[in-house]
Amino acid sequence: MERLTTNKSVADMSMIELAHNSCYADDERDARYRDYDMEMDARDFARNLMVTLAKDELPVDDAEFDEEILDNLTIDPFSDVRGLIALFYRNMWAMADLREKLKDYEDAEEQGRYIKLPEKVEETEYRECVHTRTKCHHENCKCSECPLTELFCDEFYTTIDRCYEDAYARGCLAGIELGKAEAKLKEMEEKDGE
């Protein structure tokens, strides 16, 4: 899959790339807006909108600004432009935050630090109980040890005491696929230890 986030300069971005990267967080984790003509702090963008559209001003102090924006979010954006500007500002910082989180995932994937599990695990003939390491009381079930690791059983699925099909329906992975993920994790840990 092609990356959605980029560190290119705005001049080198396509329209689609700019759409996904127009809001971002700077080194201080402040939301910023950019397009082909400008780049500015998201708070300043909202301040400028308020002066231009509402003939009003938002506070210069960031904490006071945030309080007023929070208050303005209670205003109907269809009846008062202050509510619309608050909504717009909220969406800008949310988009910046989401862009940074996605960038972290895309960077990790490129560096081999992100394991992408398969979308669908092939059906197997497993009819084993999972998660509880106890005998299954369901009909036609041949029980043995849980095909999942201790990590998945103990930390994520301790309350599930159904057969493999029931766990699989809830997103549980077959032991074979999990084994691949465990091998990749072990490989990554060994690299980190070197």
Give the spatial strand order of the biggest sheet. Answer: 1-2-3
Assess the beta-strand content as a share of residues: 5-15%
Our measurement of the CA-to-CA distance between the termini, rounded to an integer number of angstroms, reads 30 Å
The main β sheet shows up as: 3 strands, antiparallel
Strand count:
3
List segments where confidence is low: pLDDT < 50 over at least 5 consecutive residues: 123-176
Q: What structural class results from the helix and strand content?
A: mainly alpha
Mean pLDDT: 76
The number of helical elements comes to 7
Q: Radius of gyration over alpha carbons?
A: 25 Å
Structural summary, described in words:
Helix 2 runs antiparallel to helix 4 (81-110). Residues 123-176 have low confidence and may be disordered. Strands 1-2-3 form a three-stranded antiparallel sheet. Strand 2 and strand 3 (39-41) form a beta hairpin. The protein is 48% helix and 5% strand. The chain has helices at 15-21, 42-54, 62-72, 81-110, 150-156, 164-169, 175-193; strands spanning 23-25, 31-34, 39-41. With 194 residues, the protein is mainly alpha-helical.
